[in-house]
Amino acid sequence: MQNGRPGNDVASLRVKLDALIKRKAPKPVIDAARKKLKRMYGGTRIMKGETAFAMGVMNRGRELMVFDWDKAARMIKERKPIRAGAGLHDKWENTGGEIFVNGKVVKNVYTYLASTWAIPELALAFEDGSQEIVDCYKMQSEVPKWGATTKWPTSALVILVGKK
Questions:
Q1: Domains of the chain: which residue ranges?
Q2: Residue 147 has pLDDT above 70, yes or no
C-alpha cells in the first residue's frame, strides 16, 4: 500500500498496466498508466539501474527502437557538424558515445543504441558552439539486422561517404 490507499501501490499499478496492455487499451491510456507507474518508481528511493530495469519490465514485449544509422548519415552529410554522438534519451551516460568527429566516422567507441522504452537520439555539435539533439530511430522490424551494438552499417556509410 502506498499513499495509504489499497490498490495504489507499485505492484497493483503494474497489474493494472499489464491488463490495459493485454486488452489493447488506447495508447494514451497505456501511456498515462506508464507515466503514473514511472512517477511512483521515481518517488521511491531506488537506484538508476533499478529504474532502468523497472522500465524494461514495464515495456516487455514491445518492439525495440534501434538507432537509425541511415538517418544519422543523411543528417551528418547535410548539416556538417564537427561532432556527432548517439545514445538513448535520459541514459546517455551509460549508452552514448561519439560516432563522428571532424569529418571521420568513429567505430571504436562503445554505444548501446536500442531500447523498448528509451528513445535513440542523435546529437550534433556545430562549429559555432550550437548543438541539436533529435530522435533518430527505426523499429527493429524495419531493420532486422541492426541491433543495440550495430556500428555504421554499409548503407549508412554509402549515404555519408558515397562508397562501400
A1: 10-58, 65-161
A2: yes
